[in-house]
Amino acid sequence: MESLIPDILFTLLGHKSEVLKCIVENDSMFSDDESIIVNSGDRQLLTFFLNLAEEYQKLNTILVSYNRLESIYKESNVSKRGMYFEAFVDGTIIALQSYRKCVTDIEKDLLNNKDNKCLLTEILRKVEQHKPLIVSINNILEQIELSQLHGGQILNLIYEVVTMTFMDDKVQLSLIFKQCLQVLISQLNTFFARGVIFDPHKELFIEPEYSRNTKEFKQFTLLPSLMPSFVPISTASKITRIGDVIKSLQHSHDQLSYINYKDISIELYGQKRDQLFADLLNLENLPMFTKNEFVEVIDKFYNVVDEYMLKASFLNDSISYHMKLVRDFYLLGNGEFYMHFLKKMCSLSLKSEHSLRAIKVAFINTAKDVKIHKSVYNAFSFSSYDNEKNDETTWIKLKVTIETKWPLQFIFTKSVQKNYSKLFTFLSRIKRVQTNLHEIWIEQKSKPYKLNGHTDQLKTKLTFLIDTLYSYLQLDVIEDECFLLLEKLSNASDFQSIKHIHDKFQTNIMRDSFLFMEDVYLGFNRILDMCENYCRYITDITASLNPQYKQCYDELNLLFTKKPNQLVTLLNTIQEIEVTPKPNQFIVRLNYNSWFLQAISIDS
């Protein structure tokens, strides 16, 4: 048996030996060879050696060359051969160094001590210690092959194997994991410095999203299928947010460039930059990598970025200035401006179409009339939600956009500005109807003849209803929320708090303005429709001949007189709202001294 030891060692290093195979299979070719006398016990030992050698040979084809890739990845998935698999191969070579050293040490001992006999059982004992590691690596390789794993999926598989493995193999398998982790750390290192993803094989769980039309960068998005289990969704979202901040900051420095790879890490991270990146790179060198340590490092980056954005938000009272623009223009806080602006606009009917150019001209001219600075009115632009290229739009489809300074675009997002546009169109319609009703009252007072009693009562009720609605929205809702907003902003400790405070502010206003209650919202818009037609009917002599306006006038009468009363039904719906007490304040204002509801019931 001693004559077979060179063959055994040769086989253990990944080479095939037909001699050993034939002996184990009891081939007659070797049964008569007197130099090779093998009993059943020796044959069993040789079987153990061959089993171990076969496990190692599966890996050896990869360690020697990357030809194995052709069988692992199908023709259609050639592009999936990436950096993480290469790192897996490199890590495997490092992890198996102890096994190869064990075999070569045995060989050296035999060469240096030719007189000492080496028992096969002793050799087997030494090399069998490495078998669990080799089997584990082969199992990983088989899962990669069967499931066609790619990129972050490979990293995740190795991480889960390492975390579930006993200490004997954990250290060696961690060497493979560290090699794959280095790829991720390298990608994050570039990402956190320049906002760039080096990912030629699409292996990272983050990808950039671009606008279809302009190819302009929009944001970074997550690919959950490539996300390792040690990266929670919240942490992954923080990583993408950091990338979005870097890209937006680069773009704010160079407005003409859509693709900017400038390193802004010194500006963004300041004096903490070197320590942050050192902590990131140190994740590769941890004795035992854990999820908590990874999350902690990402949180450090995120907190520094958040702190920088917080300072930028309050620089030159930027957030206060933008909220004043929101209050004055989106929420009609600048009464003088809107009194003139709405007079320049004709009808704000939902059905009437308006020229965007006419709206812009009226907006700019009004701003100039009331001495508003150019930088203020230039911050607003108008378009249509139906078709941004079309110059015609209905008032309810009007899109009002405000230009923001960095980093406030993360607060005043497209969805946020869409909500403000909806508030603007609703409030401006109410204000316009209120103005028209008051103008009718002034005009009628100046004329020698009076309206008939019924028409005058109808106008009085409409005016009171619209006045009360607008007062409720401006005083009870908007003013209260603005006061709370400014108070909370002064105590904000981070940028996300500012965003949360603002989002809550907008949500509360929309909720208490009935925009989330479709029946109530549509009901008020229907009343506004009828009020607009009523104003035309009263002021335009020819309108009284139009059956459409006459029908609307009759509908208004029914609104107050028909049983069951539509208006009372609407008010009852508001009274039943339990989410917030604010809407009840509208009922209290409307039914002050019980006059309004009593007037309706008398008419009914």
UniProtKB/TrEMBL annotation:
It comes from the Eukaryota. Residues 6-311 form the Gamma tubulin complex component protein N-terminal domain. InterPro entries: GCP, GCP_C, GCP_C_sf, GCP_N. GO terms for cellular component: gamma-tubulin complex; microtubule; spindle pole. One of its GO terms (molecular function) is microtubule minus-end binding. Residues 322-596 form the Gamma tubulin complex component C-terminal domain. GO terms for biological process: cytoplasmic microtubule organization; meiotic cell cycle; microtubule nucleation; mitotic cell cycle; spindle assembly. Keywords: Cytoplasm, Cytoskeleton, Microtubule. Belongs to the TUBGCP family. This is Gamma-tubulin complex component. It comes from Cinara cedri.
